Amino acid sequence: MVGVQRVMTVSTPVETVLGYLADFGHSETWDPGTRTATRADDAGVVEVGSTWHTVSVFNGRETELLVRLTERTASRLVFVGENPTVVATDDLHVEPSEDGGSTITYRADLRFKGLLKLAGPFLRREFERVGDEVERTLPPVLENLSPPTSPSAG
C-alpha cells in the first residue's frame, strides 16, 4: 500500500468545507489526478452509498474507478474507489480551527491488487507529488467558497 497525508488550514467554516467535499464530482477541481468525476447513481442527495464514475491519471496512466462515499459524519468523509487493479481511499477529516475556519487532514491510500502490489514501493515518490499538488490546489478552492464579507456600516 502507498499512502500520503497532508494537513491544510483554511478560513472557510467546517460545514461549508464538508458540504463541498462530500460531492466527489468537485474533485475534478482540486485533485490533480482526477480528470472527470461524474455521478453514477441517481444524482439525488449526496449520502453514504452515493457513487461517481471517475477517470484518473496516476504515473502517466489513465484508469477508471467507481468511487463510493462510504462514511459521512459531522467531521469526516471517506471515499473508496475500486477497479480490477487498485483500491483507492480518500479520507478527509475536517475540524474547526481556532479562527473559525477549518483544518483539513487529507489522507489518500492506494492498495494495488495482483502483481501490481510489487510496484507500490516504487510509486511512493509519484504519490507524494500528488499529495503536494492537492496541498497546493485544495486550499484556494475552499477559500473561494466563503461568502464575501460585507463592509461594516459606518
Spatial sequence of strands, sheet with the most strands: 1-7-6-5-4-3-2
Provide the succession of SSEs: EHHEEEEEEH
> What's the helical proportion of residues?
10-25%
Q: What Rg, in angstroms, do the CA atoms define?
A: 16 Å
Number of H/I helices:
3
The largest sheet, given as strand count, sense and whether it forms a barrel, is: 7 strands, antiparallel
The low-confidence runs, each spanning 5 or more residues with pLDDT under 50, are 148-154
The count of β-strands is 7
Strand content: 35-45%
- Which word captures the global form? globular
Gap between N and C termini: 58 Å
Overall pLDDT score: 88
Classify the secondary structure makeup into a structural class: alpha+beta
Question: Care to describe what's here?
Answer:
This protein is α+β, with helices and mostly antiparallel strands and 154 residues long. 21% of the residues lie in helices and 42% in strands. The protein is built from 3 helices and 7 strands, in the order E-H-H-E-E-E-E-E-E-H. The protein has a 7-stranded antiparallel sheet with strand order 1-7-6-5-4-3-2. The longest helix has 20 residues. It is globular and about 45 Å long. The termini are far apart.
Topology, element by element:
Layout (H helix, E strand, L loop, with lengths): L1 E9 L3 H8 L5 H4 L3 E6 L11 E8 L2 E12 L3 E7 L3 E11 L5 E11 L11 H20 L11
Antiparallel strand pairs: 1-7, 2-3, 3-4, 4-5, 5-6, 6-7
Quick rundown:
This protein has helices at 14-21, 27-30, 124-143; strands at residues 2-10, 34-39, 51-58, 61-72, 76-82, 86-96, 102-112. The protein has 154 residues and is an alpha+beta fold. Strands 1-7-6-5-4-3-2 form a seven-stranded antiparallel beta sheet.
